[in-house]
Specification:
The complex is a heterodimer of chains A (148) and B (371). Chain A has 148 residues and is an alpha/beta fold. Chain A has helices spanning 3-8, 24-34, 68-77, 89-93, 130-146, and strands spanning 12-18, 45-48, 56-60, 83-87, 99-100, 104-105, 121-123. Chain A has one domain: 3-Layer(aba) Sandwich (Rossmann fold). In chain A, strand 3 (56-60), helix 3 and strand 4 (83-87) form a beta-alpha-beta unit. Chain A starts with a helix and ends with a helix. Classes of the chains: A alpha/beta (148), B alpha+beta (371).
Chain lengths: 148, 371
């Protein structure tokens, strides 16, 4: 472990971005990081709303058409090395909103997160459970820490 | 230069570090005093009504739950009520009681989230964390009842899902849980109201008077904080067996808004206690109803944020003409109006005091231009 990753491992900042979900996943993620019961801050994972400060981008929601551009810009603003975690059924495959009546795509949804920015880790669930958020973050973090 | 044109504009959003949900705020300021405000939603539009159109009614009902992640249960409840009203389905009394228990638990967790978020905006993280911790108890109770923390899906047409039937163990757990919440929220309220720093920060900030609240058609606790005694629960038949008060405060400022929600938590605890005490015996679901075509049926319930409206018609067992009106769309007016004439540092507090939920507010909007 180099000195960079040693330092990085002690202050991982996660940015949460809403892209049109139902608030369920978002609150569960805030819960996982923030609330005393799950408390990811004890593992030195902090929640931030500033992309330039962030190492990890957590995306929730099916990405509505209006949210596509802001999401790309936020992704660009995060300094390398970065990690993208897609959380919740909507972020993974569009959830219930992706298609109307079988396979007719909805006009409002720009597609799951994967089609817009590269995704490193996926957390399933509707809504995601805080335990799963912690497990997903733990499984994805080595990639961030091993980057030069 | 035209005197009526305000030059300085501060825009936040749609994705901004101060606004957690995606929405856009434009503040027109003069000497750091907000002269006008504009809140725009529309980024979150997913078109749930369009997806519901033409689906079998049971499937469409389960979709309404995905409209909002905070008040998911009450959306499903109202959607089921529309179908039951149209098809004239009588539900067992036990099912009605359990629906109310779930709705009131949901109100408690929504209000606790509001208080936690409000304290975070105030800069008091300790209270915020404590409230998040208390809220976990409610989430655990909802998980025990419905099987999921956020989308528990209790009501179905004709009663409730048999999974959500309350046995002796669940009843005992809910009793212990709400006693714990009551005690903890009371402790919080005592400390909160006796803290001079917080009280001086929130008293008289961004008030909304009664006249304006009625003119803007504000609903829910935000309306009750201005002194209007209106609660849709008092007009619903299923709430008839329960005794509870409609909480009102006088000022309509941040303090009144916070205190209304604190007292409403106590009222919800009261309702749940009565429901558990008088829980009727019998079946929880009556599946003997028959499908038929109906006209457009309307239903109103009291969601944690105010009056929620659903309506649709049934045709060959399929849903037509879905209209959903969430309470926050009315409260946006209150948010804009409360900011005017106040310092710009109070702007975020003024928005948060109305308990915004913009993700469920983004419904299909038709703009009518009048000349």
């Amino acid at each position: 472990m180099g000195i960079k990753s040693y330092a990085r491992a002690r202050a991982i900042h996660a940015m949460l971005v809403y892209t049109g979900g139902c608030n369920g996943c978002d609150i569960e993620i805030v819960n996982a990081v923030f609330s005393p019961k799950y408390d990811a801050e004890q593992y030195k994972i902090f929640l931030t709303w500033n992309p330039r400060e962030a190492d990890v981008l957590i995306v929730t929601g099916p990405v509505t058409k209006q949210n596509k551009k802001p999401l790309k810009e936020i992704y660009k603003a995060i300094p390398e090395p970065k990690l993208v975690i897609a959380a919740g059924a909507c972020a993974l495959m569009g959830g219930v909103y992706k298609n109307i009546h079988g396979d007719i795509p909805s006009e409002e949804i720009a597609g799951p997160v994967e089609e817009i920015i590269p995704v490193d880790a996926k957390i399933p669930g509707c809504a995601v459970r805080p335990e799963d958020v912690l497990a997903g973050a733990v499984s994805a973090l080595p990639k961030l820490l091993e980057a030069k | 230069m035209d005197k009526n044109v305000i030059e300085t504009e501060i825009t936040m959003g749609t994705v901004h570090s101060a606004a957690i949900e995606p929405y856009r705020v434009r503040l027109f300021v003069e000497d750091e005093i907000v002269k006008d405000a504009e809140i725009t939603v529309g980024v979150n539009h997913r078109g749930v009504e369009r997806i519901m159109e033409g689906l079998p009614v049971e499937k469409a009902n389960s979709l309404t739950e995905k409209i909002c992640g905070i008040c998911s249960g009450v959306h499903l409840w109202n959607s089921v009520l529309v179908a039951e009203k149209g098809l004239e389905v009588e539900i067992p009394e036990r099912a009605s009681y359990i629906r109310i228990i779930v709705a009131e638990l949901e109100r408690i967790h929504s209000h606790l989230l509001y208080l936690a978020h409000g304290n975070e905006v105030l800069g008091h993280e300790t209270f915020s964390m404590r409230l998040f911790y208390i809220r976990e108890t409610v989430m655990e109770l909802l998980r025990i009842i419905g099987g999921n923390r956020v989308q528990y899906g209790v009501p179905i047409i004709g009663g409730i899902r048999p999974r959500a039937e309350l046995d002796e163990m669940k009843v005992q757990k809910i009793r212990e849980g709400i006693d714990y919440i009551r005690g903890k929220v009371k402790e919080f309220a005592d400390r909160f109201t006796s803290d001079p720093m917080i009280m001086s920060r929130i008293t008289g900030v961004c008030p909304l008077n009664r006249k304006d609240a009625l003119r803007l058609a504000v609903t829910g606790p935000t309306l009750r904080a201005t002194g209007v005694e209106f609660d849709t629960r008092k007009e619903m038949e299923c709430y008839d067996p329960f005794e509870f008060d409609v909480i009102t405060q006088d000022d309509g400022d941040v303090k009144s808004n916070l205190l209304v929600r604190v007292f409403e938590i106590f009222e919800s605890v009261k309702i749940i206690k009565q429901a558990l005490k008088n829980l009727p015996e019998g079946a929880v679901v009556d599946r003997s109803w028959e499908m038929q075509d109906t006209d457009i049926t309307k239903s109103y319930v009291e969601a944690p944020r105010g009056t929620l409206y659903h309506s649709y018609a049934l045709e060959d067992g399929r849903v037509r003409n879905v209209v959903i009106r969430t309470p926050s769309i009315a409260n946006i007016g209150a948010m804009q109006y409360a900011l005017i004439g106040h310092h710009i540092t109070d702007a975020q507090l003024g928005i948060v005091q109305c308990d915004p939920c913009f993700t469920c507010t983004d419904r299909a909007i038709e703009i009518i231009k009048r000349r």
